[in-house]
Amino acid sequence: QQKVQQSPESLIVPEGGMASLNCTSSDRNVDYFWWYRQHSGKSPKMLMSIFSNGEKEEGRFTVHLNKASLHTSLHIRDSQPSDSALYLCAASRGSALGRLHFGAGTQLIVIP
Amino acid sequence: NSKVIQTPRYLVKGQGQKAKMRCIPEKGHPVVFWYQQNKNNEFKFLINFQNQEVLQQIDMTEKRFSAECPSNSPCSLEIQSSEAGDSALYLCASSLQGHTEVFFGKGTRLTVV
């Protein structure tokens, strides 16, 4: 069964708008969360990672983590057409040497 | 630009044929992963290595795939007898150690006809 659930499956936002993506793990043993972005035909590239409760901001991107509920969210402000891509959430356990459990992704489309 | 190099980018095989793909991990990265990404964008972990040793692999990999990461040579993943359901993007990735960034190659897109 899918251990990492992402929502929504797809999201359309206008240029300049805010995109909010969600991710929850059902595996209580995970302790690290990763957000990857994959443009069509390209390899996934890490956007941000988070290990501690709270919030982390890098430029237009903000990640939240609630370790009690194993829920993380990614927020993109001032969305640009170049942000259109598949956003993948992944979770990993400290004991598993970095093996990532991926969600099925959120397809983000930013309309100019 | 990804420093994980995968070859070939595209591979077309008939059912029952062997399909072999290669990966050169980023220099200095001892941990290598192979994932399968299907047409629905779902990722399936296949196998990982630390240096030349297999750390974990799923049943499918053990039964139908041959994989290795020899020292001073590219890592490889080979399907012994391709099936239509094996059509997917095969991604190789590498990292320094657990809980550091995992870097992905551009993948080998396998089509089994």
Order of helices and strands of chain A: EEEEEEEEEEE
Low-confidence spans of chain A: pLDDT under 50, at least 5 residues? none
Number of strands of chain A: 11
Question: What general form of chain A does the structure show?
Answer: globular
How would you sum up the major sheet of chain B?
7 strands, mixed
Helix amount of chain B: under 10%
Structural class from helices and strands of chain A?
mainly beta
Q: Total number of helical segments of chain A?
A: 0
The fraction of residues in strands of chain B falls at over 45%
The largest sheet of chain A, given as strand count, sense and whether it forms a barrel, is:
6 strands, mixed
Separate helix tally of chain B? 1
- Please state roughly what percent of the residues of chain A sit in beta strands, choosing from under 5%, 5-15%, 15-25%, 25-35%, 35-45% or over 45%: over 45%
Average pLDDT confidence of chain B is: 93
Largest interface here, residues on each chain?
A-B, 24 and 27 residues
In N-to-C order, the SSE pattern of chain B is: EEEEEEHEEEEE
The termini of chain A sit apart by: 37 Å
Task: Explain what you see.
The complex is a heterodimer of chains A (112) and B (113). With 112 residues, chain A is mainly beta. Chain A is built from no helices and eleven strands. Chain A has strands at residues 4-7, 10-14, 19-25, 32-38, 45-50, 54-58, 61-66, 71-76, 85-92, 101-102, 106-111. In chain A, strand 7 (61-66) and strand 8 (71-76) form a beta hairpin. The radius of gyration of chain A is 13 Å and the shape is globular. By secondary structure, chain B is mostly beta strands. Chain B is 5% helix and 50% strand. Chain B has one helix spanning 59-64, and strands at residues 5-7, 10-13, 19-24, 31-37, 43-50, 53-57, 65-68, 75-79, 88-95, 103-104, 108-112. In chain B, the strands form two sheets. In chain B, strands 2, 4, 5, 6, 9, 10 and 11 form a seven-stranded mixed sheet that branches. The longest helix of chain B is centred in the middle third of the chain and has 6 residues, at 59-64. Chain B is globular and about 35 Å long. Chain B starts with a strand and ends with a strand. The interface between A and B is medium-sized, with 24 and 27 residues.
